[in-house]
């Protein structure tokens, strides 16, 4: 573990607790959203190239 990882890891655990669990769920949801956006963009590009 390098020093940067150690610092961000420690600061993540010293932040005040939020009312709703954010980290894992929010991250997974964001990834899913991004994948959908990328897929739509790829389809649009393919359609434009075919036109």
**Overall strand count:** 0
| Low-pLDDT residue spans | none
Broad structural category = mainly alpha
- Helicity, as a percent range: over 70%
The N- to C-terminal Cα distance equals: 50 Å
Mean pLDDT: 74
Largest sheet: none
Q: What general form does the structure show?
A: rod-shaped
Q: Proportion of β residues?
A: under 5%
Helix count, DSSP H or I runs of 4 or more residues: 2
* Overall radius of gyration: 18 Å
- What pattern of helices and strands is seen along the backbone? HH
Explain what the structure shows.
The protein is 78% helix and 0% strand. By secondary structure, the protein is an all-alpha fold. It has a domain at 19-51. The chain is rod-shaped.
Summarize the SSE layout with pairings:
Elements: H1 3-14, H2 23-50
Provide key terms for this protein:
51 residues, mainly alpha, 2 helices, 78% helix
Write a short abstract of this structure.
The protein has 51 residues and is mainly alpha-helical. The chain has helices at residues 3-14, 23-50. The longest helix is centred in the C-terminal third of the chain and has 28 residues, at 23-50.
